[in-house]
């Protein structure tokens, strides 16, 4: 059993790393446990974070870790957390490699995970010419001939959004639910083709999409794809402690990342739908501040109690 640290951070993406930076600078003993499987690992470049536009996700983490290494009270372990127990002030974490760690507070910065992609050929192009967020990758696909692989909930919204980057795109409807008459009329007004036949296969060369083949034989050439991903919670471990989550898998927290379980926090994609590196880092920072405040308050009170004895 390792020594009791102030904070165990589970997940070393932008949220967990920014929390570690704040807590390290606050002189707290921190252990970051990270299995190093972030959602954006499929992509070559990460965009939209000031001073880091265009770096690889791995470079982003490497720079962050180098900067955090200045603060000696932060330690990193590569491992997967498989269970958690205990309560505020004394949580116990067990990992896949059989290690046990104890911490006063816990921050889950575990992100979200993509459900396995079921469309044939989509995995091969994901992160190379198929993306999920136009703010992250729309610029690189501007003015190209695109395919939007969507469902009834996301079709109109994504069409409107993508129109800011390209006016040449085809909608590929997937799933049983249909668009409403009004939605169909709105898309028709903008002369956006809609294909209802399910996708049979996405043809690509070295990750670059060439054409999409549908079950009814339709073949549409395109050079880029945006699609609606299906997400699940990054980890089941928060539930073992009684944390609440929405149907989407997103953990329920207050504005500082506090869950309903005392001493347990969550930040980043696991606790918000902002899904951007800069947002995840910001939420991690806020959670770090909140955790530090709680630890300071506890230390302050316990010193006062001792002096009364
Ligand atoms: C294809 C793609 C491209 C993207 N491009 C951009 C972009 O260009 N710009 C942008 O701003 N955003 C982009 N995003 C979104 C961005 O990646 C996320 O918003 C951001 O990474 C969220 O940070 P996070 O720290 O919350 O989670 P993550 O970065 O996902 O990190 C979570 C970490 O927790 C670890 N973890 C999970 N469970 C456990 C466990 N039980 N034990 C130990 N470790 C665990 C994971 O392995 C992972 O390392 C992209 C997303 C995708 C899918």
Automatic annotation (TrEMBL):
Key words, A-Z: Flavoprotein, Oxidoreductase
Required cofactor names: FAD
Domain FAD/NAD(P)-binding intervals: 6-281
InterPro entries, per database record: FAD/NAD-bd_sf, FAD/NAD-binding_dom, Ferredoxin-NADP_redctase_2
Annotated SUPFAM superfamilies: FAD/NAD(P)-binding domain (SSF51905)
Signal sequence extent: none
PANTHER family for the chain: THIOREDOXIN REDUCTASE 1-RELATED-RELATED (PTHR48105)
Protein name, entry field: NAD(P)/FAD-dependent oxidoreductase
Organism: Paenibacillus nicotianae
């Amino acid at each position: 059993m390792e020594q009791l640290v102030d904070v165990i951070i589970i997940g070393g993406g932008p949220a967990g790393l920014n929390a570690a930076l704040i807590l390290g600078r606050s002189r707290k003993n921190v252990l970051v446990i990270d299995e190093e499987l972030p959602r954006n690992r499929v992509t070559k470049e990460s965009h939209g974070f000031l001073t880091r536009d265009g770096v690889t996700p791995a470079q982003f983490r490497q720079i962050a870790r180098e900067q955090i290494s200045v603060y000696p009270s932060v330690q990193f372990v590569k491992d997967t957390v498989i269970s958690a127990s205990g309560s505020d002030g004394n949580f116990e974490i067990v990992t896949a490699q059989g290690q046990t760690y104890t911490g006063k507070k816990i921050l889950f910065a575990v992100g979200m995970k993509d459900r396995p992609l079921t469309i044939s050929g989509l995995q091969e192009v994901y992160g190379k010419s198929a993306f999920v967020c136009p703010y992250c990758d729309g610029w690189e696909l501007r003015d190209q001939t695109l395919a939007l692989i969507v469902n009834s909930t996301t079709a109109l919204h994504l069409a409107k959004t993508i129109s800011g980057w390209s006016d040449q795109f085809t909608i590929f409807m997937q799933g049983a639910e249909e668009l409403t008459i009004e939605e169909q009329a709105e898309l028709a007004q903008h002369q956006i083709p809609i294909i209802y036949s399910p996708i049979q296969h996405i043809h690509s060369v070295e990750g670059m999409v060439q054409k999409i083949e549908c079950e009814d034989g339709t073949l549409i050439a395109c050079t880029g794809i945006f699609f609606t991903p299906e997400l699940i919670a990054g980890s089941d471990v928060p539930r073992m402690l009684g944390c609440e989550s929405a149907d989407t898998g997103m953990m329920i927290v207050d504005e500082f990342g506090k869950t309903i379980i005392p001493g347990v926090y969550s930040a980043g994609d696991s606790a918000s739908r902002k899904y951007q590196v800069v947002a995840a880092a910001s939420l991690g920072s806020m959670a770090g501040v909140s955790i530090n405040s709680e630890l300071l308050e506890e230390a302050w009170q316990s010193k006062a109690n001792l002096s009364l004895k």
